[in-house]
Amino acid sequence: MQLELTAYDPLWPLLFEQEANQLRQLFLPQPIAVEHVGSTAVPGMVARPVIDIFIGLCPLLPLAQYEQRFVYTDYRRCTAEKEGRYSFYRPALQAAGYSLHLLPLAGFYGQSELLLRDFLRTHPKAVTQACEVKQAAFAPCCNDPTAYVQAKAALHARLLNTVAATYHAPLCTGGDPVVTQGANSVHFPPATRTFL
């Protein structure tokens, strides 16, 4: 499988908004939150052209109910997913593919991917450094998605440590850091797929 790593495309947020509007309709009347995460959500970040979307649902229903909703769409279930979420993928039909993650609405905004996105959006120097590391990791791995994820794992852990330090929490040493925000604790689950 040939991977593609491209310069930031200002079209990505627009593609997200279009897809998010369609997904909101698909999940009516269930209360949801929809967020753009991953590299395509960070201006200036190089990325694979895949729009990562988090959907927080209240309540998160059994998987079969969501699989049923996607029967007449181009979304297919992903088998590699983090515990506590359901993941689906839609291959690129035009400008980008889509990776969709369904999570419980409770604790949704404490997800490490959202905190990391928000940190990077306000720290352009970190974006520049991440781009350099990602491009170096990509060159030898362009035909192997798993190798690419492993090659940039150290970058992902380092950025999570920086986010944890920014929120005055214990640093990640390869385990699961906890970010404390006032009375709320945010747990970073171990990543099976990095979002950068």
Question: Could you walk me through the main structural features you see in this protein, from its secondary elements to its overall organization?
Answer:
It is a single chain. With 196 residues, the chain is α+β, with helices and mostly antiparallel strands. Helices cover 36% and strands 19% of the residues. The chain has six helices and seven strands, in the order αββαβββααααββ. The strands form two sheets. It has a five-stranded mixed beta sheet with strand order 1-2-5-4-3. It has a two-stranded antiparallel sheet with strand order 6-7. 29% of the residues are buried. The model is unreliable at 171-195 (pLDDT under 50).
Strand order of the largest sheet: 1-2-5-4-3
Looking at the structure, what is the overall shape? globular
Mean pLDDT: 81
Number of helices: 6
**CATH topology heading of the largest domain:** Beta Polymerase, domain 2
Catalogue the unreliable spans: 171-195
Strand content: 15-25%
Order of helices and strands: HEEHEEEHHHHEE
Secondary structure category: alpha+beta
Number of strands: 7
What is the top-level CATH class of the largest domain?
Alpha Beta
**Main β-sheet, in a few words?**
5 strands, mixed
The CATH architecture classification of the largest domain is: 2-Layer Sandwich
Instruction: Tell me the radius of gyration.
Output: 16 Å
Integer tally of domains: 2
Helix content: 25-40%
How far apart lie the N and C ends?
Answer: 19 Å
Instruction: Determine the CATH superfamily of the largest domain.
Output: Beta Polymerase, domain 2
